[in-house]
Amino acid sequence: MSQKSVCVFCGSRPGNDPAYTRDAEALGAGIAQAGLRLVYGAGDVGLMGTVARSVQTAGGTTFGVIPQHLVDWEVGKTDLTSYVVTETMHERKKVMFMNCDAVVVLPGGAGSLDELFEVLTWRQLGLHKKPIYIVNTNDYWSKLMALMDHVVDSGFADASLLEFATVVPDAAATMTALKADFS
């Protein structure tokens, strides 16, 4: 049986609430302790770098994917177990998604939203059935979830859209859910 992998989408900045960093650290440690592989955007900054360093510190396996134009900007983390440089952002998302068994979204900005909505759209179109977890640290994603409700209530998506992602309060709840998925 091959090692299960978790793709983590998150900010290339740490955000202004220390709880974001704490959840990134706890998630990274939890991934490693559960024997899972981290798949992520290969940055060494923000929550991205925090998750990866936490996995590494706990003895885990890392698979980073970064497009060439971000290697210098996001300070590509080259000391990973596997490090892949792609040509485009779209290729990066595809490689990350194709190499994971589940997706976790920590707090982040426009890039994290782009990544989340791409995998949600693929799920809505029936292209995959991988679990998607949105880590709602200190209610970070609550307004997004209200917007998702509004999209459904306004008739622009079927209510099933809301079932494709599971909102969890923190890293501990995320790990509990992932362990159940992979058992």
Description:
It is a single chain. The chain is of the alpha/beta class. It is 42% helix and 17% strand. The protein has helices at residues 18-33, 46-57, 89-98, 110-124, 142-153, 171-182; strands at residues 5-9, 37-40, 61-67, 82-86, 102-105, 132-135, 166-168. The chain has a seven-stranded parallel sheet with strand order 4-3-2-1-5-6-7, sandwiched between helices. Helix 1 (18-33) runs parallel beside helix 2 (46-57) and helix 1 (18-33) packs parallel to helix 6 (171-182). It is globular, with a radius of gyration of 15 Å.
Mean pLDDT: 96
- Tell me the distance between the termini: 12 Å
- Gyration radius, rounded: 15 Å
Number of helices: 6
SSE topology string: EHEHEEHEHEHEH
Report strand order across the widest sheet.
4-3-2-1-5-6-7
Structural class: alpha/beta
User: Approximately how much beta-strand content do the residues carry?
Assistant: 15-25%
Count of strand segments: 7
* Unreliable runs: none
The largest sheet is: 7 strands, parallel
Shape call: globular
| Share of helical residues | 40-55%
